[in-house]
Design brief:
GO terms for molecular function: ABC-type oligopeptide transporter activity; ATP binding; ATP hydrolysis activity. It comes from Lactarius akahatsu. InterPro entries: AAA+_ATPase, ABC_transporter-like_ATP-bd, P-loop_NTPase, Type_1_exporter. This is HlyB/MsbA family ABC transporter. It is built from 24 helices and 17 strands. It is α+β, with helices and mostly antiparallel strands and 717 residues long.
Length: 717
């Protein structure tokens, strides 16, 4: 009953969602890290103490002891699945770590004996032999433990994977969707694939803890005996402990974050968010077509450099900013006291040696000097070998950094400016394909076969065909996203390969079927449709109106400054279970650190397409003299029936541009535009099978286009 009540309470909390306000100054401490604001929960002395110094932790441990016993029984079952040799090896492997820790005691027993009696050759040899034996045993145990751990880990993963699988498979939908249950399920699996199972990790953690306690007691016993036998032992003991404690506190105080603490970080710097968005536009493959077809490279580079100059050295991701803050020296009281306290025991020891010179053998000082010199020498050799191995990689990376600027493009730039004058494309651009065939890189099948057609300036061309017939490929070749495998293409009578790419793409606008929205604000998403007008708010608002996106944008909390996909994630850890929102954004779990969801506002396909259409309209104005060719690839493909009015508006807009711009539109269905088209290209199986106007194609009874038209018309009767 108690367990059921606890689960019910957990689910109730998860449904309501826990509230936690990082902006509450009484609960959270604020630290500025460049463009980041870090909020760390105030924990008083627990900031300096180990996270295990918490009575609640021990209460939970006590309650979980029965599960530990059950796990040990299961592990015994795992061991019985193996043969006798492996079973013995695994048990040795677990206790091997404890025996390794015990070697520390034996090391120090020899050291203590050496300090108690005068140095004699026989005793020195005995001490040296004992230390060598302990070292050999320690290394042997380490080797055996490592070998056994692999086999034991593999069998434990196999055994517990079935248990975890069944635990997940048996849950129904409402239970699976419960945040508290899903959070619990995530703890059943290792966060990194192919690592140890949760059960084995727990047991090995206990073994490591036991080993650490054994080492701690042995070190403490030796330290106590050595200092007690000194003349000022009562003073040396607290001073030595204080110096070590101060060193621990100094290291602890330097790190703001810890695994057991609650913290959250957010950046509100719009320049940094936009700069990271531009980074994503350039790096993500899904944005490459829009970037290339829009000729955005130079504009985005100038924008990025401008933002970087404004931000200076503050433009860092969260973890870079955090570790930079941690490594920056600070004059805190703890750090100031650490050095003198560390040297104080040696000062006391020196004064004692002055009073009683015979109390410290010269041989012991020589031995200490020899050990120190040997350690330094070996450390230097290790550093040399390590750095020598990485010098080649570092220089290679440096070479690649500079060579990246000169990587040649497969689509070679032309040399002829286009157009010769703006007036020459004021009424549109002519486009001609001459026996063009094309295969996508890495494919053996042709996407286009022997395609030939000509579109005159100012004409409306509609390409009709089923999915995969080659419609989109024609548009991609027209924008020189790719070059044809065979044949030639002419723009205003010029071979398209001879024209400057930047000029060519500036003279056209294209809306791809698989369009993407950039991880930037809505304002920037629309404005990048025409980099020349990217800063013109009036032009952006007009394009949004033409794309029927104005009403959608007005309902968003930040309007045109809204990010549909935020490129910078908020960082956080240790939030209350069931908490669903932080800084106004949805909370999701991740690894190695938790981050908030990048999506502030989810939108349907139709709503997102309105923004993409608005971006295209930035270049489709009759007053826009630079653009002579407009291309739309399946503009209604992502729209639901309720959003068909967007397509109707788009088609109406296209018809109004007729005679001012050359327009090419691809679609898998005939309709309003095909009736008004100057030329229709009907495609099937990567080839153009019919060409003509709507009336001309309907005259032929065996026309594939005619059959498609009549079939779609009957659907509305």
């Amino acid at each position: 009953m108690e367990k059921d009540s606890s689960m019910a309470n957990d689910r109730k909390d998860s449904e309501t969602g826990s509230e936690l306000d990082p902006l509450n100054k009484t609960v959270f401490k604020h630290v500025n890290l460049g463009v980041w604001d870090l909020y760390v929960m105030r924990t008083r002395l627990s900031r300096y103490l180990p996270t295990s110094w918490n009575i609640e932790e021990y209460v939970r441990i006590w309650k979980d002891v029965p599960y530990l016993v059950r796990t040990l029984r299961d592990m015994d079952t795992v061991a019985r699945l193996a043969d006798s040799f492996r079973r013995k090896s695994e048990r040795r492997g677990i206790f091997g770590k404890l025996l390794k820790a015990a070697m520390t005691c034996m090391f120090h027993q020899y050291d203590l004996s050496l300090l108690k009696v005068p140095a004699r050759i026989r005793f020195c040899l005995k001490d040296t032999g004992g230390r060598a034996l302990c070292t050999a045993v320690e290394h042997a145990l380490g080797y055996a433990s490592g070998k056994v751990a692999t086999a034991l880990g593999a069998r434990a993963r196999q055994f517990y994977s079935g248990r975890v699988f069944h635990s997940m498979a048996r849950l129904d939908v409402p239970t699976w969707d419960d945040p508290s249950v899903s959070s619990q399920i995530k703890t059943l699996q290792p966060r990194i694939p192919d690592t140890e199972s949760v059960a084995l990790t727990a047991i090995m953690t206990l073994v490591e803890t036991g080993s650490a306690f054994l080492r701690m007691f042995s070190e403490g016993a030796v330290l106590f005996r050595v200092l007690r036998e000194q003349g000022d032992g009562s003073l040396l003991i607290p001073v030595s402990l204080a110096s070590e404690a101060m060193s621990y506190f100094a290291i602890r105080s330097g790190f703001i974050l810890s695994l057991g603490n609650t913290w959250a970080a957010i950046t509100r710097n719009n320049d940094y968010v936009k700069m990271e968005g531009l980074n994503r536009v350039v790096k993500d493959t899904k944005h490459r077509k829009e970037l290339v077809a829009g000729g955005l490279a130079e504009f985005l580079t100038a924008e990025y450099r401008s933002l970087a100059d404004r931000l200076g050295g503050r433009a860092n991701d969260f973890w870079t900013a955090y570790f930079s803050y941690v490594r920056t020296p600070t004059l805190e009281p703890i750090s100031l006291l650490r050095v003198p306290l560390k040297e104080l025991p040696q000062i006391i020891f020196t004064f004692q040696a002055v009073k009683k010179p015979m109390s410290i053998p010269v041989s012991l000082a020589s031995l200490h000097l020899l050990q120190q010199s040997s350690d330094t020498f070996m450390m230097s050799i290790d550093v040399i070998f390590e750095t020598m191995g990485s010098i080649s990689d570092r220089l290679s990376s440096l070479r690649k950094l500079y060579e990246a600027e000169n990587i040649p493009n497969k689509v070679v730039d032309g040399t002829i400016p286009f157009p010769e004058n703006a007036q020459s494309i004021s009424d549109g651009i002519s486009l001609e394909f001459r026996n063009v065939s094309f295969r996508y890189p890495g494919s053996e099948q042709y996407a286009l076969r022997c395609v030939s057609f000509k579109v005159l300036p100012g004409q409306l061309c509609v390409i009709v065909g089923s999915n995969g017939s080659g419609k989109s490929t024609i548009l991609k070749l027209s924008a020189r996203i790719f070059d044809p495998t065979d044949g030639s293409m002419l723009i205003n009578g010029h071979d398209i390969k001879t024209l400057k790419l930047a000029d060519l793409r500036r003279a056209m606008a294209i809306l791809f079927q698989d369009y993407t929205l950039f991880p930037l604000s809505i304002r920037d998403n629309i404005g990048l449709g025409n980099p020349r007008l990217a800063g013109d708010d009036a032009a952006i608002e007009e394009a949004a109106r033409l794309g029927r996106a104005s009403e959608l944008i007005s309902r968003l909390p930040d309007g045109f400054d809204t990010y549909l996909e935020r490129p910078v994630r908020d960082q956080y850890m240790g939030l209350p279970e069931g908490m669903r929102k932080l800084f106004g954004r949805k909370v999701v779990d991740g690894f190695p650190w938790f981050t908030s969801d990048t999506s502030d506002h989810e939108r349907s396909g139709g709503q997102r397409q309105r923004l993409a259409v608005a971006r295209t309209f930035m270049r489709s104005s009759t007053m826009e003299q630079e653009v002579g060719l407009l291309m739309f690839d399946e503009p209604s493909a992502s729209l639901d029936p309720a959003a068909e009015h967007i397509t109707i508006d788009l088609f109406s807009r296209i018809r109004k541009l007729r005679g001012n711009k050359t327009m090419i539109l691809s679609t898998h269905r005939s309709g309003t535009l095909t009736r008004h088209a100057d030329i229709i290209l009907y495609m099937n199986d990567s080839a153009i099978v019919e060409t003509g106007t709507h009336e001309e194609l309907l005259k032929h009874e065996d026309s594939d286009y005619g059959r498609l038209w009549r079939m779609q018309a009957e659907a509305f009767l």
